[in-house]
Amino acid sequence: EAAVTQSPRNKVAVTGGKVTLSCNQTNNHNNMYWYRQDTGHGLRLIHYSYGAGSTEKGDIPDGYKASRPSQENFSLILELATPSQTSVYFCASGEVGGAREQYFGPGTRLTVL
Amino acid sequence: QQKVQQSPESLSVPEGGMASLNCTSSDRNFQYFWWYRQHSGEGPKALMSIFSDGDKKEGRFTAHLNKASLHVSLHIRDSQPSDSALYFCAASEPGYQNFYFGKGTSLTVIP
User: What is the pLDDT of residues B6-19, one digit of tens each?
Assistant: First the structure.
């Protein structure tokens, strides 16, 4: 079973603070993704990566940065957190191509006060 | 514009009943369609994929794809309370490595 883990699972941050969400996968997948999930919006793609050292903008990248230092790790960085970034964030990994399944982590619930 | 539209937003069916979920896309380049299921407090998990016109059956779950009308559906027969979850439709096109997800259908199976 493919494994994707996320940390922390819950995070409370203050407005203007820096937040880093971490993701690790043991699947040796090239592609990794960060989504946010909000009621009424479904899953929206923030950033993704095709491999170590690469990051690409998704559909809603504003206010977020991403880092892929290795095949296994992919981080999402909020340099100046805002209350509008309160959400549940999911990391996923997958092989190349839309015919291949994406494997999701358990999610991180972020609250920005 | 949302490229993948799902209906209904929510659905309640009695235990043992049939649940039918719908998904339409606005992009004729989409070739790969997936259904993902998310139980409360968990991450989404792939339920099944369908890439060719027609039906694909996996146990109690049947997916149907009609590429001409850009419509895909998921039918769950003999619904169980454990089927209560959020169901996402996802689509992708050849050469594109990401999915477009719909907003989801919340299914409740009433015991």
Answer: 999 999 999 999 99
Token reading at B28: 């004729």
Q: Is the distance from CB of A71 to CB of A51 less than 8 angstroms?
A: yes
Q: Which of A48, A101, A108 to mutate to test the interface with B (most CBs of B within 10 A)?
A: A101
Q: What is the pLDDT of residues B57-91, one digit of tens each?
A: 999 999 999 999 999 999 999 999 999 999 999 99
Alpha-carbon span A86 to A14, nearest angstrom: 11
Q: Smallest Cα–Cα separation from A38: which of A87, A72, A83?
A: A87
What is the radius of gyration, based on Cα positions, of chain B? 13
Residue B37: phi, psi to the nearest 5?
A: -125, 135
CA distance B39 to chain A (A): 11
